[in-house]
Structure to design on (415 residues):
């Protein structure tokens, strides 16, 4: 059987889902027998090649994320939204109750730690935040979701293992489904 | 004792008249999902989770407010009901701001449990992200409207069990809010006795004690029923 290709991407999230992915520990050896991990923030920063499965952590918060997620969709046969931020915006969506400018000012200008000298970052290389944070499903078609903040290592391993063995995972079991 | 015959999910039951469909189902281990129902207080049929099909009735009726009638043919487990339960649950999540990971009720929340039961893995409706207030003016408790699902269990428990009627409901539609007195800060309430029953009745993390941090909330909604039973015995 030909080896499959997996990628993992980190958009607007805290990297907790990737930490949980690492928590599958030695079971990762079972996975790499079936698939190569060709891109991952923990591995390297190469351009995303064509892959079978991409796990996407985090929500879409900026112009760069939007470009990235559209590219991911084009390159991946299967896109999995990993974690509550990717599925339902979670903590990253909490800024949606406010105006974007107020949020940026609070972080960069008015925060006590800025000592009244805070400035808005304005380098052309920086991403531009969108007005509202949205979950992946509002930008692209998502094939599978793993909610949880973070999803447990057991569930991540279960889902990957099922896909790599050409089975469809089932999260409807209460022990596997979790938010928060 | 006279009984009537009813059918639930193709099975026949002999039951006492005057009971609600929900009571009969619970007595016979037939699962019905509920959110606004709480033993010890009046049922109002607000959450629409306990909807059942009754033959000859062209709309779904809430099991908690519909009494059994002779020869009723009831179904609780059809695909249509399951579809509605899932939609209702998704709308609970989409209407206000339910961020489980930072909530005091995380892991002990009835809304989370409901989501798991209906197999909710994502929400198909766009989130509204309304700006909701957090009222922390009370010395001991907090009311976080972000997490309120308008089950009105707090309103009923305050009125019917404590007798204070501090809580009530204001506005309609997505602007509907639970209010303290005439929409004044909870800490300034002249009716609240600070008994904390609303806190135990609340199914989510909307009402919680200040001494509690994320995921540490431990509610005891069953004390409401116990209280009512103890009072009935004294009379």
């Amino acid at each position: 059987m030909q080896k499959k290709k997996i990628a993992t991407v980190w958009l607007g999230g805290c990297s907790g889902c990737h930490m949980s992915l690492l928590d599958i520990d030695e079971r990762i050896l079972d996975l790499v027998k079936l698939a190569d991990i060709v891109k991952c923030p923990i591995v390297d920063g190469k351009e995303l090649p064509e892959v079978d499965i991409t796990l996407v952590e985090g929500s879409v918060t900026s112009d760069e994320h939007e470009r990235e997620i559209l590219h991911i969709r084009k390159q991946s046969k299967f896109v999995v939204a990993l974690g509550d931020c990717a599925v339902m915006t979670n903590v990253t969506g909490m800024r949606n109750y406010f105006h974007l400018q107020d949020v940026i000012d609070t972080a960069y200008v008015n925060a006590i730690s800025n000592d009244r000298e805070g400035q808005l970052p304005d380098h052309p290389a920086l991403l531009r935040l969108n007005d509202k944070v949205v979950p992946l499903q509002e930008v692209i078609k998502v094939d599978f979701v793993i909610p949880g903040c973070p999803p447990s290592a057991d569930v991540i391993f279960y889902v990957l293992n099922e896909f790599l063995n050409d089975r469809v995972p089932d999260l409807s079991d209460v022990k596997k489904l979790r938010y928060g | 004792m006279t009984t009537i015959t009813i059918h639930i999910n193709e099975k026949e039951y002999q039951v006492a008249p005057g009971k609600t469909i929900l009571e009969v189902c619970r007595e016979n281990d037939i699962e019905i999902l509920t959110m606004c129902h709480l033993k010890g207080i009046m049922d109002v049929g607000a959450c629409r989770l306990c909807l059942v099909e009754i033959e000859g009735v062209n709309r779904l009726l809430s099991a908690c407010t519909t009494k059994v009638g002779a020869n009723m043919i009831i179904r609780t487990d059809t695909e249509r009901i399951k579809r509605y339960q899932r939609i209702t649950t998704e709308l609970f999540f989409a209407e206000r701001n339910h961020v489980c990971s930072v909530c005091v009720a995380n892991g002990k929340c009835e809304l989370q449990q409901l989501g798991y039961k209906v197999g909710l893995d994502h929400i198909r409706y766009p989130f509204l992200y309304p700006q909701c207030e957090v009222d922390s003016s009370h010395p001991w408790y907090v009311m976080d409207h972000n997490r309120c699902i308008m089950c009105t269990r707090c309103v009923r428990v305050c009125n019917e069990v404590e007798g204070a009627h501090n809580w009530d409901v204001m506005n309609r539609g997505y602007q509907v809010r639970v209010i303290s007195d005439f929409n004044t800060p909870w800490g300034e309430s002249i009716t609240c006795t600070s008994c904390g029953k609303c806190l135990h009745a609340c199914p989510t993390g909307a009402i919680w004690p200040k001494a509690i941090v994320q995921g540490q909330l431990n509610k005891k909604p069953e004390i409401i029923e116990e209280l009512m039973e103890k009072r009935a015995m004294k009379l």
